[in-house]
Amino acid sequence: MGTDERNIAVRFFGGAGNYTDVLEDLCRFVLAERPDEDTVVEWVRTNTRASSEDGISRRLRFVAALGVLEIESDRVRVTERGLQWVSTGDHERLFDALTETVTGFETVLEALLEGPKTDAELGEAIAAAHAEFGWNDPTGPAGHRGWLQSLGYVDRSDGVNSLTDSGRQLARRVTSGLPAFERGDYYAQADLEAAFDTSFGSYIKGINPRTGDDGELAYIVLKAHEDSPYRDDLDGDRFTYIGEGVPSKGDQRPTPANTALLEHAEGGVVPVYFFYQPADRDELRYEGVVDVVDAEYVSDADGERMVYRFTMERLDLEDPTMVESLAESVVDDGAADEDEPALTDDEEAFTVTERRVRSSAFATRVKQAYDFRCAICDTARESPAGTVDIEAAHIYPKRENGRDDVRNGLALCRLHHWAFDAGWLAVTDDYRILVADRPDLEGYEEFVRLEGDELTLPADETKRPHATFLAAHRKRHGFESA
Length: 482
Hints:
The protein is α+β, with helices and mostly antiparallel strands. It folds into three domains: about 20-175, Winged helix-like DNA-binding domain superfamily/Winged helix DNA-binding domain (Arc Repressor Mutant, subunit A), CATH 1.10.10.10; about 185-325, Roll (PUA domain-like); about 330-475, no CATH class. Helices cover about 35% and strands about 15% of the residues. Helix 6 packs across helix 9 (about 165-175), helix 9 crosses helix 12 and helix 12 (about 320-330) crosses helix 13. The model has no long low-confidence stretch (mean pLDDT about 85).
């Protein structure tokens, strides 16, 4: 039984939503009984509603093409792939078998990422993406959907299909082109180049930014070496990492590699894959996805040159695409159907790691909305290290679980961020600056000059501060209603 790529996913027994349950029962029967083909056909007749021998044979041939069963007249066997799927319960193993055998599964997932679709609309998406097949079978998409439904990736209601949470996560990974690695496993450079579909040259450098087809940064590969001259401190889940630039070249500069990490420290939301290479091995050990939580331009350990010192923290995320999906969960369109948005996020909805990723995404989107300029003084100061003195402030504070919503954010320089959080400054509903009436305190003369000035606002009106958050901030700091 061959494994030629097909354009039709043959439906299985038990009805859509139950294919995998029946297939797993069949595999367990085969493992226990070591039957011949006739016995397997009889098991199908007994345990399902199938009665047509041709229909049963066609479905069994499809499972054989997936590489789950080997079927010969005198013996049916569960393959190594089938055994791994049954023993682990990992549905992605079966999904991989389906995508290797049948064209169109990735297309279905991509289409459903855009929103719910009927079977007919899924068929149109497959036909458009794979014109070489001359798709004209209206029942075909139901086979694709039935398998995805059985794997738990698609829900179906009133004839409309939508992704489940696990389906959305899988769809993002499949369409992003980002690979997943097993933490603690070792990989040769050739393995990584194949997985990332890119060439690292003669060796993998310490910092490797990679862009997608659109030219935007897609991910960063970070490597540390046991004998590294950069003296990376890799103990624990939080560690420091020294930027690109060997001692013989003097002070480190804002190269594209260093700049990629600098931007990530300011709120980047692409995955940063971290690998470690022991001195006695050529392979690299995967340490997981990390977040760049801080960046400093400091004198090196010997006091001889300036270096970029990045503080890294390991993220408890098995799937790198979770970085993107968590970033997308940050509310950033004022067109949401809420007249008055909630002040806070649901504390139970996200883990500590997930909240950290969302905070980074919030910071990035707020600063982008304000074009990396302070909303109060309209400045964008740069440090000698190349970082911009702009921070993302929650209007209703994060320490009170303030919502990660761009409308709950202001891009502010460090001074005015402090002043806003401390209660020196507030903002009216029509975006004019208020100053606390405390002439007896140091700093009043500096801040009072801002009284009545208008904020510099995003061009996109949907990203401007919402009155609900501004009013809550004024109330917290004792400003009269405005």
